[in-house]
Amino acid sequence: MKATVLSGVKLAVLAGFIVMPAMTAAEREAGGGAQASGVEPRSGVFCVTNRAPLAPGAFIKLPIGSIRPRGWLRHQLELEANGMTGHLEEISKWCKFENSAWASADGQGQFGWEELPYWLKGCGDLGYVLNDERIINQARKWIDAVLSSQEPDGYFGPRANKTGLDGKPDLWPHMVMLNVLQSFYEFTGDERALPFMTKYCRWLNAQPGEAFGRGYWPRIRFGDNIETAYWLYNRTGETFLLDLARKIHDHMENWTSGVHNWHNVNLAQGFREPAVYYLQARDEKFLRAAERNYQTVMGLYGQFPGGGFAGDEDCRPGYTDPRQGFETCGMVEFMHSFEMLTKISGNPVWSDRCEELAFNSLPAALTPDWKGLQYLTCANQVALDKANHAPAIENGGTMFSYSPFEVYRCCQHNVSHGWPYYAEELWLATPDRGLCASLYAASEVTAKVGDGSTVTLSEETDYPFGDTVTVRVSTARRVKFPLHLRIPRWCARPGAKVNGKNISLKARPLSYAVIDREWRDGDVAVLQLPMEVSVNTWAKNHYAVSVDYGPLTFSLKIGEQWTRYGGTETWPEWEVRPATAWNYGLLLDGRDPAKSFEIVRERGSLPANPFTTENAPVTLRAKAKKIPAWKVDRFGLVGKLQDSPVRSDEPTETVTLIPMGAARLRVSAFPVIGSGSKANEWTEPKPPPVSASHCFANDTVEALVDGIEPKNSHDQSIPRFTWWDHRGTAEWVQYDFTKPRKISAVEVYWFDDAPNGGCRAPQSWKLFYRQGESWKPVEGAALFGTKLDAYNHTAFQPVETTGLRIEVQLQPNYSGGVLEWKVSD
Ligand SMILES: [Zn+2]
Q1: How far is the CA of 691 from the centre of ligand 1 (A)?
Q2: Fewest CB atoms within 10 Å of the CB: 266, 393, 630, 800?
Q3: Residues 768-800 pLDDT 10s
C-alpha cells in the first residue's frame, strides 16, 4: 500500500489527465451527452465531468443519490423535512400552487419572483438526498408545471419577469430555477430537462450583451448562469453555451477586478464568479480573484469567529463588531460557493471554510426543530428578540427572533438548500478514478472506481464532535483505487490505519492524503484527525479572542429562556432571552492560552441533534470574570467590544463553553481579563451629545456627529438622522457640550433622497445657542444654506455656549434630515 500526499495545487495539476467516462446513475446523465453534437465528452471518470475546452476541475460531483447521509446530518435533514422546508406550502404565500405564476402553463398568476425557486432548490434536493417520496413528489408537481410553461422562443415561467426591469427581462429568478432543474435531472434523468434548458439558454443567448449588465440583483449574480451553462454544456456539448458564458462574464459585474458591491448575499454568491469562469478562461488570475475577493470581505468584515461576516443587509464601514449579523441566505450561499470552489480548484481550504460555517453558524440560525429561523445570526448575540435594532443593525424591524413566516421572506425559502447541498458534497469523484472524502460526516457512498467496479464506502464518525473517521469498503471484487482524505488546516498530526496497521501519512494541514491500494471487501481505513484547543486573537476587534477545538468554535453557555410571542401551536414564533449572565471575559494562561481550557466529553453515543445547549457533546471549562460595565446598549444589542486586556475586580468563576452552532444565545468573541498597568477599564458608552424634536426609529441622532463623511446628499450607505415621517413641520436638532465652548461657525450636510424618498433639504433654517435657560439666535450670519451634496458653511459672531440648536422649517409635504453636523471655533 502506498500513502501519498498532494497539496491542493498539485492536485489541480494532476486533474489534467482525466480519461474516458462510463455510465452510472450518472450513466443516465452521461447518456444525454453521448447523443449530442459538438465536442466529445471528456473521458476517464465515471460521472459527468467537464468537456474540453473547459478545464477539467479538480474534483467531480457524484450523481445525486450516490451519497446517503447518516448520523446527525441525516437527522438535520429529517428535521428539515418535518419542519419548514417540508411544509412551506402550508405557511408561505409564495408557495401556494393555485395561482402561482411559476405553476401555470401560461406563466400568469401571482408571485413569480425568487421565493418559490429558492424553496424548490432546497426542497427538491432534500427529497433526493433523503429519498423521501413525499418531498420528491411535492417538488415534482412544481417542476412539471415549470416544464410545461415554455414559450416557442424558449422563455418559460412567470411572464411578468420577461419585462420585469423597465420593460426588459429580470433574469435573476430564472437563475435559481435552473439550479432546481439541474438537480432534478441529476436525480431523475428526466428527458424533458436538457432540451428545455437548452432552449431557454438559446433564448438567453439571443439577448444583447447589455442584458447581463442590467438590474441590481441579476448583474451581480450572473455567475450562477455561467455555472449552469457549463453544467449543460458538459451534458449536451452545445458550444453556443460557451459563447453565452463568455458574454455573461464580459457584461456582468466585474468581480475579477475586486469587490464593488457590499450586499451580504451578493457577496456570498458573487465573489466566486471569476473562479467559475476560470474553467473556460483557464487563466489562474481568475482563481486568484475569487480568493482575493474572499480575503477582502473577511479582512474588513469577517474579523470574528463563525465563518461569516458583518453584513446585516450590507457591509457598512464602522459596523464590524461581532454583534453585527450575517443573513441566513448569505450563510447557505457562501457554503454553496465553497462547495463549488473545492471542486474547481482542488484547494481543501474551501471545504474547511464550508465546515466552519456549517458547524458554527447554520444550526444557530434555526430553532432546534427546524420550525423557525432568524434573519440574522451574530457571533455575539445575547438576546433573540423581535425588537427593532436599527440603525445599529442596518434593517429596521424584526431580525433576530425565530419565525417560520414571511417576515424573513427570502431566508424562509432559501435556507432549504443549505444541508441538502452539503450532503451531496461529502464525497467527490477524483480524476484518478478514486473517491475523496471532502466534508466529513457519517454517510454511505456508492460509486464506480478504478477499473469500473462499483464500491460502497460507509463512513462512520461523530465528526466534528469526534476525531476518528472509519471508512469500511464493500466491493464484490478486489479493486485498486485511491482514497483521498482531506486534512483540515487545524490538524497538525493526522494518522491512519488500514485493517489495523498503521500507515505513514506525512500529510500537512490543508492537503489531501491519498491511500492508493487494492481494496478488498471488508477493508477498513481509519483516519485520525486529532483536535487541539487553539485560541485566536482578533486584533481588528479590540484583541478579543475566540476558542476553537478542531473545526468547532466555542461560545459561552448562556441559559436560554424561550417565550412564544406569536404564530400557532404548530408554527410558533419565539423570542429567546438570557437566563444567566453573559458579560464574561476569559482568564487565559499567559504562556500558553490553549492550556486555559479543560475539555469535557459526554460519554455514549452522539445525540440525534447535537446542536442544542443541552445536547452539546463536547464542552470546555474555562476561568472567567464578569465585566460589569459590559451591558446591552441603547440599541438593544450586546455592547461593542473594547480593548483587551480588560480589568475586572469581580471574583473568578468557572464557566462552560459549548459549540457555537449549539449556542443560540452566544458570546463567541471574548474580551480577555488582564491586570496591572496594561489592563484597560471597560467604560460604559455615554449617551450621545445630540437630541432632536423627533427621530425616525431606523435612524439615529448619533449620525450627526459620528464623523462618517457623506459621499453626497442621498448617500444611503451611512447612518443618518431624519425627522421622518414628520412632514412640512417645524423641527429641531440639538448639540450639547460638556463644558462651554467658543463657537464661530457650523457646517451642515443635508440629507435628501429625491426623487423616490420623502426627505428634502429644509425650506429654511436658523441656528440658536444656549444662554442660561433660553435659546438665542446667533448674530452676523450671512447665509443659512440648503445646497445639496456639500457642507453648508455658516459663520457668525463667536459665542461661548454649552449648546447649539438648529431649527428648521421643512418643505410642505416633505420631511428632512442631516447626515453630518460639524462645529468649529
Ligand atoms: Zn435572506
Answers
A1: 34
A2: 800
A3: 999 988 999 999 998 899 999 999 999 999 999
